[in-house]
Design brief:
The protein is of the alpha/beta class. About 50% of the residues lie in helices and about 15% in strands. It has helices spanning about 10-15, 20-30, 40-45, 50-60, 70-85, 90-100, 110-115, and strands at about 5, 35-40, 65, 105, 125. The strands form two sheets. Strands 1-4-5 form a three-stranded parallel beta sheet. The protein has a two-stranded parallel sheet with strand order 2-3.
Length: about 130
Protein backbone atom coordinates (compact mmCIF):
# COMPACT_ATOMS: atom_id res chain seq x y z
CA UNK A 1 0.00 0.00 0.00
CA UNK A 2 1.44 3.37 -1.00
CA UNK A 3 0.76 6.62 0.75
CA UNK A 4 -1.56 9.13 -0.84
CA UNK A 5 -0.63 12.68 0.17
CA UNK A 6 -2.66 15.79 -0.68
CA UNK A 7 -1.43 19.32 -1.15
CA UNK A 8 -3.79 22.30 -0.95
CA UNK A 9 -4.84 21.94 -4.59
CA UNK A 10 -5.67 18.29 -4.02
CA UNK A 11 -7.73 19.16 -0.93
CA UNK A 12 -9.55 21.95 -2.75
CA UNK A 13 -10.43 19.82 -5.76
CA UNK A 14 -11.46 16.71 -3.82
CA UNK A 15 -13.59 18.67 -1.36
CA UNK A 16 -15.92 19.87 -4.12
CA UNK A 17 -18.79 17.50 -4.88
CA UNK A 18 -18.02 15.96 -8.27
CA UNK A 19 -18.93 12.49 -9.48
CA UNK A 20 -15.59 11.82 -11.12
CA UNK A 21 -13.71 12.64 -7.90
CA UNK A 22 -16.15 10.55 -5.83
CA UNK A 23 -15.47 7.62 -8.16
CA UNK A 24 -11.72 8.09 -7.76
CA UNK A 25 -12.08 8.10 -3.96
CA UNK A 26 -13.88 4.77 -4.14
CA UNK A 27 -11.03 3.34 -6.25
CA UNK A 28 -8.41 4.64 -3.83
CA UNK A 29 -10.32 3.14 -0.93
CA UNK A 30 -10.52 -0.25 -2.66
CA UNK A 31 -6.77 -0.07 -3.30
CA UNK A 32 -6.17 0.59 0.40
CA UNK A 33 -4.90 4.12 -0.26
CA UNK A 34 -7.72 5.97 1.47
CA UNK A 35 -7.84 7.99 3.65
CA UNK A 36 -5.24 10.38 2.27
CA UNK A 37 -2.61 12.00 4.46
CA UNK A 38 -2.42 15.78 4.79
CA UNK A 39 0.27 17.68 6.67
CA UNK A 40 -1.43 20.26 8.89
CA UNK A 41 0.48 23.15 7.28
CA UNK A 42 -1.44 22.46 4.05
CA UNK A 43 -4.53 23.71 5.88
CA UNK A 44 -3.01 27.20 5.90
CA UNK A 45 -3.16 27.17 2.10
CA UNK A 46 -6.59 25.60 1.60
CA UNK A 47 -8.68 27.24 4.34
CA UNK A 48 -9.79 30.84 4.66
CA UNK A 49 -10.80 30.90 8.31
CA UNK A 50 -14.38 31.75 7.33
CA UNK A 51 -16.80 29.01 8.36
CA UNK A 52 -19.22 29.37 5.44
CA UNK A 53 -16.47 29.47 2.83
CA UNK A 54 -14.64 26.52 4.38
CA UNK A 55 -17.67 24.29 5.05
CA UNK A 56 -17.12 21.83 2.17
CA UNK A 57 -13.39 21.65 2.81
CA UNK A 58 -13.87 21.06 6.53
CA UNK A 59 -16.35 18.28 5.83
CA UNK A 60 -13.86 16.64 3.45
CA UNK A 61 -10.99 17.01 5.94
CA UNK A 62 -12.91 14.85 8.42
CA UNK A 63 -12.33 11.92 6.03
CA UNK A 64 -8.55 12.46 5.94
CA UNK A 65 -5.61 11.75 8.21
CA UNK A 66 -4.13 15.08 9.31
CA UNK A 67 -0.50 14.87 10.44
CA UNK A 68 0.15 17.60 12.98
CA UNK A 69 3.85 17.12 13.72
CA UNK A 70 6.85 17.25 11.44
CA UNK A 71 9.82 15.27 12.73
CA UNK A 72 13.22 16.91 12.23
CA UNK A 73 14.45 14.28 9.73
CA UNK A 74 11.37 14.85 7.55
CA UNK A 75 11.85 18.63 7.69
CA UNK A 76 15.50 18.20 6.72
CA UNK A 77 14.56 15.89 3.84
CA UNK A 78 12.02 18.44 2.58
CA UNK A 79 14.67 21.15 2.77
CA UNK A 80 17.06 19.03 0.72
CA UNK A 81 14.42 18.30 -1.92
CA UNK A 82 13.60 22.00 -2.19
CA UNK A 83 17.27 22.88 -2.54
CA UNK A 84 17.90 20.27 -5.23
CA UNK A 85 14.77 21.18 -7.20
CA UNK A 86 15.45 24.90 -6.96
CA UNK A 87 11.73 25.61 -6.78
CA UNK A 88 8.58 24.92 -4.82
CA UNK A 89 7.41 26.16 -1.45
CA UNK A 90 8.38 24.70 1.89
CA UNK A 91 4.89 23.18 2.14
CA UNK A 92 5.24 21.61 -1.32
CA UNK A 93 8.59 20.11 -0.35
CA UNK A 94 7.14 18.70 2.85
CA UNK A 95 4.23 17.12 0.95
CA UNK A 96 6.65 15.36 -1.41
CA UNK A 97 8.93 14.26 1.44
CA UNK A 98 5.93 12.75 3.26
CA UNK A 99 5.12 10.67 0.18
CA UNK A 100 8.52 8.96 0.23
CA UNK A 101 9.23 6.24 -0.53
CA UNK A 102 6.92 5.20 -3.34
CA UNK A 103 3.84 7.28 -2.52
CA UNK A 104 1.70 9.60 -4.60
CA UNK A 105 0.88 13.28 -4.31
CA UNK A 106 -2.42 14.62 -5.60
CA UNK A 107 -2.17 18.23 -6.71
CA UNK A 108 -3.27 20.87 -9.15
CA UNK A 109 0.35 22.14 -9.38
CA UNK A 110 2.32 19.43 -11.14
CA UNK A 111 5.11 21.85 -12.08
CA UNK A 112 6.61 22.58 -8.67
CA UNK A 113 5.66 19.27 -7.12
CA UNK A 114 6.93 17.36 -10.14
CA UNK A 115 10.27 19.13 -9.89
CA UNK A 116 10.52 18.23 -6.21
CA UNK A 117 9.45 14.63 -6.86
CA UNK A 118 12.16 14.36 -9.51
CA UNK A 119 14.63 14.30 -6.61
CA UNK A 120 12.51 12.11 -4.32
CA UNK A 121 12.46 8.35 -3.83
CA UNK A 122 9.77 6.97 -6.13
CA UNK A 123 7.14 9.68 -5.62
CA UNK A 124 4.45 10.03 -8.30
CA UNK A 125 2.74 13.39 -8.79
CA UNK A 126 -0.81 13.17 -10.10
CA UNK A 127 -2.96 16.04 -11.32
CA UNK A 128 -6.39 15.99 -9.77
Amino acid sequence: MSRLILDSGGVSRLSRPRRDMAAMMVLWERAGEWPPVIPSMVLVECLSGRQRVDALTNRFLKTCEIVEEVPKPLARRAAALRSWAGRGSAVDALVVAMAEPGGSVLTGDVGDLGALAGHADGVAVLRV
